[in-house]
Amino acid sequence: MKAESFCWSANFRDVLAGQSPVPLPAFWRLMLMSDSSPTRHLKSLTGDEVEVDLITMQPETKLPPQCPNGVQDLTAAPYLRRQVWKHCSQGTLMWAESWWNQQTAQEIFHNRNVTIWHNLRRDLVELNRDIDQLGQVQDPRLQERFGRTGPFWSRSYSLFKGGQALTVIREVFSPALERYLDGNSHPGPGEG
Q1: Which of 128, 134, 192 has its CA nearest to residue 166?
Q2: Please, are residues 160 and 81 in contact by the beta-carbon 8 Å criterion?
Q3: For a 10 Å CB count at each end of the chain, is N or C smaller?
Q4: H helices within the chain, ranges in order?
Q5: Rounded to the nearest 5°, which phi and psi values hold at 28?
Q6: Which residues of 52-87 are buried (b: 16+ CB within 10 A; e: fewer)?
Q7: What is the value of pTM for the model shown?
Q8: Counting Cβ atoms within 10 Å, is residue 160 exposed (0-12), middle (13-18) or buried (19+)?
Q9: What is the mean pLDDT of each run of 10 residues along the chain (192 residues)?
Q10: All residues at 6 or more sequence positions from 184 whose CB lies less than 8 Å from its CB, including other chains
């Protein structure tokens, strides 16, 4: 996701205090501000298993300007950047990227084609999530994959294990998730 893809972003605490440039509807407050696993939320909403399409998992020797806050707090370079689509039988629900210390990623990802949670839960790891930024993004790739026009809700956060930053994650959600509020499909902005 390029820096120019962002329509706006704001600090989590500012959004909590009602200082967001765009009102955050109740459903999106739950999705974006929850410190639970987004994969679990997606599975609960859809009733389907959530699958991962790995886009890329590659070393990054130099941090690009559009990387999320906190990446520089991950132990040391070399870094690894992983990007995925999350989907179920009903379509693509989310795009996500995670930033890792390369050695840590090699220890955790026994299976690159499943979610982070699936890779971590085998060790019964207790994690803490610290949400940093909320915002909206506009990107043609997202629009094509989600089959909806944007902007799309986004968040970034860090996962901590034993007080140490484990990874920094940025997620962008499909507006198709809104249909699970009442079981009816809701058109996205600019549709219907």
Answers
A1: 128
A2: no
A3: C
A4: 12-16, 26-33, 38-46, 102-108, 116-121, 140-146
A5: -70, -30
A6: beeeebeebeeeeeebbebbeebeeeebbbbbbbbb
A7: 0.83
A8: middle
A9: 71 81 85 84 88 90 76 76 91 92 79 69 68 91 93 90 84 90 45 37
A10: none
- Which pair of structure tokens corresponds to residue 29? 């407050």
Q: Give the up-direction half-sphere exposure of residue 63: CA atoms within 13 A in the CB hemisphere.
A: 19
| Structure-block tokens of residue 135 | 């915002």
Q: Which residue has the tokens 């699936």?
A: 118
d(CA 93, CA 102): 27
Q: Starting at the earlier edge strand, list the strands of the sheet with 164-173.
A: 6-11, 128-137, 152-161, 164-173, 91-101, 79-88, 51-60
One-letter amino acid of 82: R
